[in-house]
Sequence to fold (428 residues):
Amino acid sequence: MKIAVVPDLHLNKSVYKGVKDRDIPSLPFRTVDFMKAFEYVVDKCIQDLHPDLLIVPGDVYDHPSPSNEVRGFLSSQLEKLTSEKIPVVILLGNHDVYQKNHALKDIQELGLKNIRVIEEPTILKYQDVKFLMFPYSLDIEQKKITIREEFNKFLATIKEEDDGTPSIFFGHFGVQNAKINEYIDREFIANINTETDTNTTTTEITDEAKKAFRNNNPNDICNDDLDDIGADYVFLGDYHEFQILGTKKCIAMYGGSLEKSDFSEIKQTKGFLFYDSDAQPDEKTGKCRFIECPNCRPMIELKGNFDDIKKQFAKEDSTKLKNAIVKISFVGTTDELIAYSTGLEGFKKELREKIDPVHIISIQKIKNQAQDEEASKLEKEIMEKGHMEAEDVIKVVKEILAEKIKDEKELEATNVLAQEIYDEVVKG
Fold:
């Protein structure tokens, strides 16, 4: 038996929704990114993998009100699969549901033989294996029952109906101690909790600090609970990073997502799971393997003062960053902000020439907190524009002078001189 396990499609992802796709300008480019990722998986299944079925463990959509264009895309991909005799089973995820409804009603109501939407915990028999399906149900969404309560209830049903048949569990929920996010801002962590080795001057992230990036909810399902199911494999959706969980009896893992949602996932490898009962078992993943999606949208974050930012980009391989999303994070003093703001437009031009980014985000942070308050209004204007206009330069100069010169008469005279110099430079 071969199963493609493809969680967290998030087909109508709309972050940066104001930036339209270059090929399909009616949709945001991030929506198209996620659609293309799923189309890649569908085509790979049809042309190469030939699974017996494809299972989506939740979050087909990013929010439960997709456009007709996105709904049409999903229908076309499902039709491609079923026309090749690849059945599809879809579990509801928390992003698919809203109060009393869910976004997959239209698919469900078609009643197609080879497409099934799972709304509540269900046991299915397929060939000689039991599939234990645990979606994010409407009862959970409506707070009629907690995930823990519903899980325990389903567990009792599983044990009651146990006849020794091998089983595989599919679910959509968070697990205690699973990694929520791999992206770690080391400067941020250093401010929370660090241990510094004075001999090597390296900063190690302590276990306590790492916990901030793991699920610490004591009410969630734990690894022992997963072992208690009695299944050979547990395949989960919800968390977007591929990861193998610390179970002892079963092999449990998150498949992750097909695309990077945002910069919080910049370091993650994206893809899906493929189970093959005839495969040679791997020590960690058993008869399952992770298949990478090779065409994820490239992302790069450049951080520091203007010199740091330029040096970081100079070290990058431009060929791997074509059409990337670029995040420019200025961190420096008010004085350094001048160089950054006046040079930003030229740097953006360089980016466009070398990698033709699909979107550029620029943010600024003043290191000195006292300066932060003084520069807040100007900083906001710069952030909104994404660069500094020529007339903004004198505003920055006056902000700096006001901070450094306390004598009112001296400040007034210096401002007049600065204005005269500025006017002369502008006139050429």
